[in-house]
Amino acid sequence: MSGPSASGAAGSASLSATTLRALEAVLPPVVALCIAAVIGDLLILSFGESPAAVYALLIKGTWGNPYGIGQVLYKTTTLTCTGLAFALAGRAGLFNVGAEGQLAAGGFGAALLGLALPSGLPGLLAVPLCVMAAMLTGAGVGAVPGVLRARFGASEVIVTIMLNFIVLALLNWVVSTHLHLPETLRTPDIHAGTLPRLADWFAVFSGSAANAVLLLALAAAAASWWLLFRTRSGYELRAVGLQPDAAEYGGVHVPRVMWTSMALSGALAGLGGVNFVLGYKGYYEDGFAGGAGFLGIAVALVGRNHPFGIVLSALLFATLSQGGLAVNAIVPKQLTDILTAVVILSVATAVPEVQRQLRAAAASTMAALTRAQQTSGGRAS
Amino acid sequence: MNAVLSTDAPAGPLAIDIESVVKTFGGVVANRDASLQVPHGEIHALVGENGAGKSTLMRVLAGMYAPDAGRVRVNGQDVTGWKTTEAIAAGVGMVHQHFMLVPTLTVAENVVLGIEPRAGWQVDLPRAVREVEALCRKCGLHVDPEALVADLSVGEAQRVEILKALYRGARVLILDEPTAVLSPPEVQELWTVLRALRDDGGTVVLITHKLDEVIAVSDTITVMRAGATVSRFATAGTTPRDIARAMVGRDVNLHLDALGAVDAAALSTTSAAPTAGAPRRDARLVVHNLHLRSDRGTPAVSDLSFEVAGGEILGVAGVEGNGQTELLEAIAGLRPLQQGRIELDARLLSGLSVRQRADAGLSHIPEDRHRRGLVLDYSIADNLILGQQHRFTTRAGLDQAHIQRHAAEQVARFDIRPPLPALPARALSGGNQQKIVIAREMGRDFGVLLAAQPTRGVDVGAIEFIHAQLRAARDAGKAILLISADLSEVLALADRVAVMYRGRFVTVLPRQACSAELLGPYMTGAAA
Amino acid sequence: MMAIAFLLQTLRIAVPYLLAAAGGVLSERVGVIALGLEGLMLSGAFGAALGAYYGDSAWAGLAGALAAGAVMTTILAVATLRFRANQVVVGVAINLIVVAGTRYFLRLIFDSSSNSPRVAGFGGEGVGNAMLASFTNPVVWIGLVTLPALGWVLYRTPFGLRVRAIGEKPEAAVSLGVNVMRLRVLGLYIAGAMASLGGAYLALDQHQFTDGMTAGRGFIALAAVIFGRWQPARVAVACLLFAAAETLQIQLQGAQLVPSQFVEMIPYVLTIIALAGLVGRSTAPAALGKTE
To answer: Which CATH code fits B265-372+445-523?
Structure first.
């Protein structure tokens, strides 16, 4: 088999395979966003308002002014972390639905250390320590379902959900009995380890919650990408997620990969907790997570479990969330919450469907190419 | 091609009349011109190698697939493209190779599922039990209707599958490789049941590749090859060689030597007992007193001992399910041993991880390339380093340049097509996917190779290539343990042949002493 | 007298759990993970409030609840069975949709951000008669009867036999001509109806819909399903156990023996223990989650 027809066919095969992968990655979020837009329009109309007006107000309230941008960036930070958390576990074939609890635990860990450290401690020392405390706490909470899955085969979906409730209840108890300021459910201000606001560097952002943790989140995204696609651990992790039997055959210690990826996932979610505790308010407050853990699932889905996609996706969902507040005057802010959930549903539905359609198209293309090869290249097999 | 060799077309109305069926899956042509004629009151064997299209054709008959072309008639009626429900209602039942039983339900519940006898709103379980018992007595099958399927042996489970079909009034019973998992007495019991059904006017189609069984129980034989029907003869007066010749087709000369040439002198001196004695000096793989458990907890390998020397291919023949899978997994480090010792180049393997064994010089071509051998969504290049990824790592992570160089070399050397290392493995044909595995396992330094079903599902051109690779490795002094359910492959490649049956080597013979007729009884456990 | 009061209160608290858990058992037995129970319950609660408001009766409320449950189940069924989306994600999405959706429609219809106006219930006013009055509430009876009825159906009827087969090995049912898809759809709708009735009970009992009023009960019901190993009898016991712990906590509130947060945790901790096999193995139906 040689000659231009063969290499031409091979080239087409390569092109179609790459295109296929790209389409499989990008198409579902696009489809999902279109569906969400349509449903959004319907809901807005049901409230008697004009979609154009609402969307205009949404853009104005988010990207149209520095405060809005700051708020969007703040929310992007947390969502990037929880999205990365879900994605990392997801790449290993595990469902971490516990980012909410891991986020809160991480924030608490940072606050605890921040309260314990002497107030004079230089930030260069305190900040990394507190951030590490957050990530270690999150990792601990994430490791539990990981170990139970690796060792007992216990469904990590259920364990992480259960653990969310347990962790949040536990934190609530600890704060409400031992650490709270009177009449509140928050800790005292942290002495050491807080981070500067974006406003401290760029006065134009004054008043917004955006802070230096944004840089940490972006660094985490870059590090996750590098880990997943450039290191041996990432190769093994992804293999476990795609085909655990082949990974085992390839010498990978599958149970170990399972619990370490869950721990890492928890650590990333814990990092998200730092955004509120060290970057924004400077104290821990019960319930600060506010659903960011579950939203992380949406972020990861739309971002197709890829760190760079997740950053973009986090920007999207942060915009939606902030935009909801902006349009609250004319349409309930739950509109954007509904749209968020619709996006999740649409992406979840679109992914297998798009995959099926594309693979069917590819199979018939390959079949046609093979027949062409056979008739032009030589005897039939 | 529908050559009828030794008999005329059957007289009288046909129970089954399949004409020129074509069935394609994606790009794979499973049936390209398949036909079958079976009259009532007959046990008909449908014979062919792996991949010949027998199962596909029968599934078309049973209503699981609709054919792309061709016609299917049952009892004179055109039923092309019918569904399983219609087939079952018309009395056509299929007993699959992989049982379709619900483990948490009882035998009776499994048998009546879907047509449960009622008592008001409830299932009349006592009646179901009675009816199943009556059916057992009538057919000569023995199984406890109230036993949980999960607790049954494989042979008993198969009986439940047959009962399911008979309970629904099957007059045409299709069995897909039924004896693969049966012991000799169970096989005899099955023949009794089938003969009773035939004598009662029913029709049996037996899909099998075991030639001795075909001779023992069938009345007529249809042979399929490469998706088409090629021959049809009456069993009376036919020898296994005739059948084998029809099965194998174009490589007649080569395989006739492999199958037919028997060294009479060697026959008379070779005992049937496995070769015992002191381990050979140049043994590279030594297995001693190995005991293994299957996933179900039953013994899979019992007190197995053998060695493979450098420069030798030890071919292990035998029907799947006799412990071959467990044996290779244990050597590769994927399964713990209950007892025994495995040594590679005099080094004890127990306690070594999969990776450590690979580093010690062990290569493994797994029997299921889709499950074990490849990560289909990984590129060719990434699959080529599976199991070796630690050798392609620097302190800064994976060495992409090295991986790409390696991939380019292997793709060229092993003729992987299309030669595009970035392509996901999923996009390749079965033969080329297998070549990735071969390239990875044989394209590196190794001392001992475990090769399980190396040419399963692989096109003919790739088969010859792979066989050439195996011979070359053997000539270079490697020790190769070849496990294949394809007897002709074993006979074509091996220097010594062992037959594995129920977790033991029931015989080990030099290649010259072997033939299909000689080995057949060992493979089915007929020879003690 | 104390004991009877305790028992009655436990039963009242158990009703939503019993209903939602019955839905959970059926859903998971036909192969669909019941992560959306919380959302289904909440939608039932909202539907009940809507129905009772517009229909001016508790029965209209029940109808509204069933309608809401049917809508959410349709979304669930289409996404998981027709499009074969991942069941965990769909479950999470359903919960989010219902939370946001109920708030949205709360504002749209009732112009409130926290609760609906007062609506009809099934009676039961007055402190003295509160306990006994519960038993004039038909939903309480439905709740008490649902799991036993489900048990009977599962283990005695042809429908139940087929459901059990589908949950373990759908291929077996398919090869025998059982219409697996139809059974799954039917199972999901019945399960959705039960879960929404659980939410309806809450709304009608409190005579209004409050934002987020299910407060995690759907997850406690799921915990009961797992802890009870998907067997209706055991699941019922689990529900009663969790309800009893809650009752205990309420009655001992003053005494402060155990902080309320720890009592809250009991169902979740027990479920994790059951999953880890520390008190006997909790193995899900083999085909659970495999509609992809």
So the answer is: 3.40.50.300
